[in-house]
């Protein structure tokens, strides 16, 4: 019998209305959403269920919205008796994984990601940073190109190593424009500018990481019940003392998603369940290894289907 990993999505997976079926039908899920409203002192549920989308996609709103939806789905799924061998999350999703492992209380996790979103938005003045998805580039060649551009004075860095042929770069607007203009030099197909509010996972986020470090020092961390594969190392962590520094580094370091999934597969994971809005991660994992089994729990209906299918394995 192979092992199972639960994975949690990051920013970009949000949709207006996500989690509404859970809220309407499961008292436990409803109480989680209401706990988030109380912790944040505003109606997160109103924003998540009714929008507008323009407000939901603001980083400081997206992060607690996705975490709350993911965690409510996780609890409903875990209540069916399915336990993971490992947990992982993409960027923001790492906080959902840490809450699922018991490293952070749900209330603390919601408050932290709200603050994290605010710090990230405020770290770089609007319009000065940018991100782009580069398709078809080799990691080493793209890193070398970014290094050359950064050395000339315009920051450009690898931000998300998502899957073979898809790497996101981040940095100063000028630096990312140069990467976009030059990717064909290194054999890439093209670069697609991303609609984001800042140069996430780049060294320009260090002011946000310093503010986050202060915030994390106020929170109780606990040893995890299940190993969480950290974005910055692509290796598991469970000890409470090791986790805050990894989360601080995560703000300005690349998300090693491809490496994390490859490591999980090396450990014998053959089943991945994406828990949360959308199916971004199942799409990426499929490109990393087509042989693994992929499930998506983004609604009550897909939760029941996944439980039924896993029961027959």
Automatic annotation (TrEMBL):
Catalytic activity, as annotated: holo-[ACP] + malonyl-CoA = malonyl-[ACP] + CoA
Known EC number: 2.3.1.39
GO molecular function: [acyl-carrier-protein] S-malonyltransferase activity
Origin superkingdom: Bacteria
Keyword annotations from UniProtKB, A to Z: Acyltransferase, Transferase
GO cellular component: cytosol
GO terms, biological process: fatty acid biosynthetic process
Domain Malonyl-CoA:ACP transacylase (MAT) residues, every copy: 7-302
Active site: 91, 201
Pfam families from the UniProt entry: Acyl_transf_1
Family affiliation: Belongs to the fabD family.
Alphabetized PANTHER family for the sequence: MALONYL-COA-ACYL CARRIER PROTEIN TRANSACYLASE, MITOCHONDRIAL
Protein name (database record): Malonyl CoA-acyl carrier protein transacylase
Organism for this UniProt entry: Paenibacillus apis
Record lineage: Bacteria, Bacillati, Bacillota, Bacilli, Bacillales
